[in-house]
Structures are given as C-alpha cells and as structure tokens.
Amino acid sequence: MQNAIARFIGKIQVLILRLILKLPDSWKVKMAGGKPLTLGGRTLDPDFQFILHSVAKQPSFASMPAEEAQARAAASVEVFAAKPKPGVTHSDFTITSRGDHQIPVRLYTPDQQDPSAPMMAYWHQGGGVIGNIGFSDSFCRLIARTVKCPVLSVDYRLAPQHKFPAGLEDCLDAYHWVLDNAAKHGAPAGRITIGGDSMGGNFSAIIAQEARRNNFTLPELQLLIYPATDIVSEFESYDTYGDIDPLTLETMNWFMEQYLPAGHDRSDVRLCPGLEQDLTGLPPAIIATAGFDPLVDDSAAYARKLKAAGVETTHKCYDSTAHGFTAFMDIIPAARAACEEVAGMVRDAYAKF
C-alpha cells in the first residue's frame, strides 16, 4: 500500500514538473537560481537547470545505504517513464551467465527490422551500483526504431551485492549470447555492435578491448555515451563540474567504493580502458558527451587516443546538457534532441557495414 501511495505521489510530482517545464525559459531559470548557469564556457539548458536545482535539494546517493539508493533510483525511473511510441516491441527473458547465473535482459525488436542490421548489446548507466534496464528503455527503443536493428538491454549484477568483475562478466556473457543467438531474432549471425552510457559506456569500451586482447569476434561499432574510461587521472572537468548533479565527484567516489573489492588496482584496464596503451585495431567508435559532466574531459581524452591509434571515431559534446541525458529524453527536449542525433549517427555508421 505504501509503495502504491509513493508511486501515486511520484506521478503527481512528475505531472507538476512537466507543467513547469512548459513555462518560459526565463521563469524556469528564475526558479532555479535566478540566472543561467554558466561554467567552463558552457551554459546549461534551462530545463536541466530547473531539474538539477530540484535534485540538489534531495539527499545524495552517497548519504544512504546502497540498497536504499538502488530502490530510490528504480522508483525515479518508474515515475518518469513515458508511454512507449509505436514501432518497437519488446520481450523480457533471462540468459545464462557463468556459474548458471540468470541475467535478466530485454530485447527490443523494431517492426520494420532490417535483416542485414547487426543486433546491438546495450548496458545502462548507474556507476555499477544503481540502475536497471528501465534507465535505458526509451533510448534503446529509439535506437531500435531509428537503426532498424534489434537491441538487447542487459540487467547486469550490481555492487555492492556483487563486486567487480561480476557486472562486467554478465556483460561479456551477454555479448557472446548475442553472437550465438542473433540469427534466431532475425539479425545476422556472428555479428554485433555494442553501446552503453556512463558505466555502460565503460563496459562497452572494455569489451571492445577484451575482444581484441582475447581474439574473439570484434564488435562492428562501439557507442560510448559519457563513458568513464579513466578513474586514475585528474581532469580539469572534475573541478569545473564536480558539484553538478546528477553525477558529482562525491557520487563518483561512492560508486567506486561500492563497486570495487578492497585494494583492487584502479589502473586495471578492465576498469580503466582509457589507460590501455595500445588501442590499434579497435572498432569504429561514436562518443557522445554531456557538457555539464565531470566525465566530459575523460571522454574527450579517450576519443583523442582512439583517433591517434587510427580508430575511426566520431566525438560530439552536447554542451548544454548534463550527465545522464539519455534518462531525461522523455521530459527534456534538449536531451531528446541529443539522443535523436546520436541515434542518427548510429544509423549512419550501420550504413557503412
């Protein structure tokens, strides 16, 4: 009963939020600090400014037990969820990981599927600690509809209940499942593309490198959206945007405290793919970043390293958005526009296969 009441209250709050977001930009800015937020030469979109101003009033994930943070994150996704657009259907099932662990997955199938388009495996954001396939539901539908390819979204295990490398192993096992089963779902056998946002982008970069290191089938494309690739180096954007929700430095550090076993080497390339010295031979990459994000310099640095290694790389920063914009695409026009452009980039990349 309490959960039902909480969901009802949450939906009322979202309804009010949607009405506020229809107000003129000047009104939203006035309610969120009085003047546009400009940092590092970038100005935050007014819708983002209002929402992040509201989020900043809430307790941070770092201030609560992990289980509470996980429940809070899941509830927020539920109340923000929009009615899916037609053109894509989905099915939920499980696949078997190592040790007979069952991984929940969601397969998105476009009504107008292109039989020549490889299936994409996708991993959601959340620092390896929070999140589920609901975080990326709208974006995965957008990719499937735009690219006309099936998309497998993977609900990998989370820390601290399952420390590194459990989540990564689930993602690797899902990768191999796609290679073995794509043909059963109308996609080319033995071919795959990969994608993810934030920690999901981290997993994507790592898996592309793991495929090359261990001589298994390379993905044909890696889509990295505001990926974390190097938690060892200090970037200027940590100082500039480290206090900006939804991803602050405090939250980043808390994620790693939950995610890593005690004493784990943080320079491990299976944690920090940006520290890999040899990036030659990796598949083409699309890297999309948010301007108001402590990871913006990290992602840009990885894009430069890929280009220097001869990897075909497209890098685009959406300066007026904040970290996590894929999760805001149903309520913030600037986030939707960014996601639609990214989906278009993926469609154009597929045209080259």
Structure description:
- The chain is 40% helix and 17% strand.
- By secondary structure, the chain is an alpha/beta fold.
- The protein folds into 2 domains: 2-77, no CATH class; 85-350, Alpha/Beta hydrolase fold, catalytic domain (Rossmann fold), CATH 3.40.50.1820.
- The strands form 2 sheets. An 8-stranded mixed β-sheet has the order 3-4-6-5-7-8-9-10, with helices on both faces. It has a two-stranded antiparallel sheet with strand order 1-2.
- Strand 5, helix 5 (137-147) and strand 6 (151-154) form a beta-alpha-beta unit.
- Helix 1 crosses helix 4, helix 2 runs parallel beside helix 3 and helix 5 crosses helix 11 (333-350).
- The longest helix is centred in the N-terminal third of the chain and has 19 residues, at 2-20.
- The radius of gyration is 19 Å and the shape is globular.
- It starts with a helix and ends with a helix.
In short:
The protein is 40% helix and 17% strand. It is of the alpha/beta class and 353 residues long.
Quaternary class? single chain
Counting DSSP H or I runs of 4 or more residues, the number of helices is 11
Radius of gyration: 19 Å
Mean pLDDT: 94
**Helix vs. strand class:** alpha/beta
The third-level CATH topology of the largest domain is Rossmann fold
Strand content: 15-25%
Order of neighbouring strands in the sheet with most strands: 3-4-6-5-7-8-9-10
